[in-house]
């Protein structure tokens, strides 16, 4: 894994972020696919630039805000000797010693939650649709292939940069699906390669949407509903392998300690980590339900009637 591409410079800059490069590539590919699809559907391709821009803006804002929600209990904690559980992090850039700070986390280069970016980006785009009185269903159907490809590339960025969205430890040695994690934990810990798993699945439903479904003349909103169900199901299942914290634990949470066991692995990586649904799983369930309601209530498996 390579976090940065080192570039010598007199200012001490660490180099190009590999995650940022792949994220930029994702948006560039999306900006290539989207206008072509809008044109094919006889929609206005001139809207694509604004849709991409608002998607990027919403992604960055929403992904950061949802990341803060994920680590909320680490930022606002009760520390003896410090006045104000909430006021201290608000007034100090780094927050409590040894804990992530609110402002330092919000404006750092890392820490992005995809669903936050998806929901906020969709909000911005929806407001744009409303303002220009565009046919939301038709445009949403046109957007989802580009969105799927962008997500697939972005997840590869997560893996290459080693941002930590790996799975729990496993004894399996499956090429591509398992890799040895070298980071904050002892070297050589085999973990499930969840970023690449998600990327492979996303490339799969991109291929389905791009090369099959969009040519089937399904009813309006059909591709959008299918995307919600496909992506929501994929993320829901992948989260069972992810080392993520449960919002409402159903089982006793594991102790997150870095005390190696006899095999040299940290204790919390040696067992099955899942003990309740994570934030992303609850959002996944909501997306699946929304897509299913749209799909079955609107009978969106049917095709539009074409005039003779």
UniProtKB/TrEMBL annotation:
What residues does a 1,2-diacyl-sn-glycero-3-phospho-(1'-sn-glycerol) bind to? 155
Subcellular localization is given as: Cell membrane
Which molecular function term from Gene Ontology is one that the record holds? phosphatidylglycerol-prolipoprotein diacylglyceryl transferase activity
Q: Which residues form a coiled coil?
A: none
* One Pfam family recorded for the sequence: LGT
What is the source species? Answer: Leptospira ryugenii
An example GO BP is:
lipoprotein biosynthetic process
The protein in question is named: Phosphatidylglycerol--prolipoprotein diacylglyceryl transferase
Q: What does the UniProt keyword field contain?
A: Cell membrane, Lipoprotein, Membrane, Transferase, Transmembrane, Transmembrane helix
Q: Which gene encodes it?
A: lgt
